[in-house]
Amino acid sequence: MAQIARPTGIIGGSGMLGRAIAQALIDRGAVSAADLWICNRSGSRAGLEQFTEVTVTTDVAELAAACEIVVLCLPPAALPGLSLSMPDRLVISVMAGVTTDRLEEATGSGRIVRAMTSPAAAIGLAYSPWVATSAVNADDRACVTALFEACGQTDEVGEEAQIDTFTALTGPVPGFVALYAQAMIDYATGAGIAPAIAERAVRQLFFASGAMLAHGADTPADHVEQMIAYAGTTAAGLEEMRRLEIPERIAKGLDAAVRQAREPV
Where is the Pyrroline-5-carboxylate reductase dimerisation domain (predicted)? Predict the structure, then answer.
């Protein structure tokens, strides 16, 4: 794991997402505890008590003065009420829907990275796509990659609009997947299976499916077509789901999430 040899601060670092990123950075050695700063309104170290070398402050300006990299991990609605002057810092935002133009205006920095990640960062399983402004240099990009590799997997994408798509697609962990899992649990309990057993079975199904999709050579489309070609019970279910236009309905749900991500902040 590459190490970021720059003091790094997380504004909003005690929320669920900020704490997950902080934990990932320390646990995987991307940032030393002594080089990590957290800013929150209360000055609380809650959730990070074991990392005694981490500096906790309530003062945004103090963090910005001390850190070369600043991660903005705040609810988008909190942005207008903050003074975030940090013109010479690398600013990485994981705030949904906040554009790079808006981030430049708010921080005074031209070195802006807009990203999306998830609380799965705490266990190294987040997917974190990001886009950078032209002022972000090669060294900055290496730091961004190291930061998000500590959280899981990452890619730099070419268009900012794609971050809104990923906000809807991969940000809500487990969100949409959990909805599908709950539907399967409800089906099992409706068939008379004990709720605890139904939940355990479906949890294991999704765990195994995720591992196979993550580590196998076959694509998701390959798995679907193989099941249909086998012409068994799963094929019957998949064909019925296609007849009911389940993929198209999922796409409409994702469209709604993308529209929400693009609402002005």
Answer: 160-263
Break the chain into its structural domains and give their ranges. 8-163, 175-261
Question: Which tens digit of pLDDT belongs to each residue from 55-105?
Answer: 999 999 999 999 999 999 998 888 887 778 999 999 999 999 999 999 999
Tracing tokens 């998949």 back to the chain, one arrives at: 238
How far, CA to CA in Å, does 105 sit from each of 65, 66, 111, 125?
A: 18, 21, 12, 32
For the cut 80, the answer to whether the pLDDT of residue 160 exceeds it is yes
**175-261 topology per CATH:** ProC C-terminal domain-like fold (1.10.3730)
Q: What local confidence, expressed as pLDDT, does residue 253 receive?
A: 94
Torsion of CA 72, 75, 80, 86, to 10 degrees: -10
pLDDT at 265: 66
Give which of 18, 39, 11 is closest to 103, Cα–Cα: 11
For CA atoms 141, 115, 159, 78, give the dihedral sign.
negative
Query: pLDDT band at residue 154, thresholds of 50, 70 and 90?
Result: very high
Q: Which CATH superfamily is 8-163 part of?
A: NAD(P)-binding Rossmann-like Domain (3.40.50.720)
Which residue type, as a one-letter code, is found at position 134? S
Q: Per the structure block, which two tokens stand in for 121?
A: 């960062």
Q: What is the dihedral of CA 102, 106, 107, 109, to 10 degrees?
A: 40
d(CA 65, CA 86): 8
